[in-house]
Amino acid sequence: MMKISVKVKPNSRESRVENLGEKRFLVAVKAPPQEGRANREVVEILATYFCVPKSQIALVGGLKSKQKIVEIEEG
Question: In angstroms, rounded to a whole number, what is the distance separating the alpha carbons of residues 63 and 35?
Fold first, then answer.
């Protein structure tokens, strides 16, 4: 299990993940921060980035904040 800190940038032009070092990431998503849409896109993008199924990614902190704590099950 790996915990990372994620800063989310909603309403971006393109979806991307940027590694800021020390288990810190910036995740830009196209979705707006309404009705959990941005959170769902964060999970999808991180699943692709870390090559794991979406079911192995959990938002454990900051559900309504731009700063989130994410747990990723490895292997």
Answer: 11
Q: Is the pLDDT of residue 71 over 90?
A: yes
Q: Computed from CA positions of residues 22, 50, 27, 35, in that sequence, does the dihedral angle turn out positive or negative?
A: negative
Give the CATH number of domain 2-72; options: 2.60.120.470, 3.30.1200.10, 3.40.47.10, 3.30.460.10: 3.30.1200.10
**Residue 52 tokens, joined:** 């794991």
Alpha-carbon distance of 44 to 24, in angstroms, equals 17
pLDDT, tens digit, 9 for 90 and up, residues 4-59: 999 999 999 999 999 999 999 999 999 999 999 999 999 999 999 999 999 999 99
